[in-house]
């Protein structure tokens, strides 16, 4: 069983350790999200897949730590936490902001000479090269709340609770700053397969914007569209997990 150092344990949540698993899945949460979002994924994929969920600073049990408001610096820190842990065939799954972060961490692993990922799943996010002028992080709290309600990723009751909002708003605003100021470095691309996954009613990413992820890998690319909005993966979790399970099983078998 892979033993995590204390520094790695700060970043990595391993809800259902699977020491005998042939493959590993590393999950990267959305803006304002936390590792616990992926607890159901971990439960359903164990013991065949060893799931790591990244816990960013500034939330839940890391709430006392400063947030990191740069995708580049967050990717550097996440890479440092994961370095040495891709000791078995590994895939990354990132949702929304997490898709871009997963991509940047994967670039760092390939640049360091690591084996390419089995696959990168880029969920609910347009390709890194597809920019929109956005500055929600500079707007008032009510604008951010309206955005969260539209995306339907945070329980309505939570958004109506002033005490809960006071706890989560710093991380949310920080993460919006990180993703809205992010700029892709032209000429960079992965060599691993990339699967873009979106909901067919997502107001923040079109099929064309998701399809542009093909430009960010020299490997195979495919686009999967599920029913739902930005957080399609909540209602479509069974189908999504089956897709990932089938892909990873096939990929691991091909490397055996």
From TrEMBL:
<dbReference type="InterPro" id="IPR020802">
    <property type="entry name" value="TesA-like"/>
</dbReference>
<dbReference type="InterPro" id="IPR001031">
    <property type="entry name" value="Thioesterase"/>
</dbReference>
<protein>
    <submittedName>
        <fullName>Alpha/beta fold hydrolase</fullName>
    </submittedName>
</protein>
<dbReference type="GO" id="GO:0016787">
    <property type="term" value="F:hydrolase activity"/>
</dbReference>
<dbReference type="Pfam" id="PF00975">
    <property type="entry name" value="Thioesterase"/>
</dbReference>
<feature type="domain" description="Thioesterase TesA-like">
    <location>
        <begin position="26"/>
        <end position="248"/>
    </location>
</feature>
<comment type="similarity">
    <text>Belongs to the thioesterase family.</text>
</comment>
<dbReference type="InterPro" id="IPR029058">
    <property type="entry name" value="AB_hydrolase_fold"/>
</dbReference>
<keyword id="KW-0378">Hydrolase</keyword>
<dbReference type="InterPro" id="IPR012223">
    <property type="entry name" value="TEII"/>
</dbReference>
């Amino acid at each position: 069983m892979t033993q995590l150092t204390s520094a790695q344990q700060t970043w990595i949540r391993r809800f259902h350790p699977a020491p005998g698993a042939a493959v590993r899945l590393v999950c990267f949460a959305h803006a304002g999200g936390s590792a616990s979002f992926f607890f159901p994924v971990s439960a359903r994929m164990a013991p065949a897949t060893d799931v790591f969920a990244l816990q960013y600073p500034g939330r839940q049990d890391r709430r006392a730590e400063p947030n990191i408001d740069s995708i580049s610096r967050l990717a550097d820190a996440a890479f440092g936490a994961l370095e040495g842990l891709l000791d078995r065939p590994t895939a990354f799954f990132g949702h929304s902001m997490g898709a871009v972060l997963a991509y940047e961490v994967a670039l760092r692993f390939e640049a360091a000479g690591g084996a390419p990922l089995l696959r990168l799943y880029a969920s609910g996010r347009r390709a890194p090269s597809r920019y929109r002028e956005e500055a929600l992080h500079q707007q008032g709290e009510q604008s951010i709340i309206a955005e969260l309600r539209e995306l339907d990723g945070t329980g309505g009751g939570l958004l109506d609770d002033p005490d809960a909002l006071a706890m989560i708003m710093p991380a949310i605003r920080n993460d919006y700053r990180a993703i809205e100021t992010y700029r892709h470095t032209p000429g960079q691309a992965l060599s691993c397969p990339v699967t873009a996954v979106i909901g067919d009613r997502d107001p923040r990413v079109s099929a064309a914007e998701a399809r542009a992820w093909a430009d960010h890998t020299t490997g195979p690319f495919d686009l999967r569209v599920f029913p739902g909005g930005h957080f399609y993966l909540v209602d479509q979790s069974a189908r999504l997990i089956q897709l990932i399970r089938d892909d990873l099983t096939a990929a691991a078998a091909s490397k055996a």
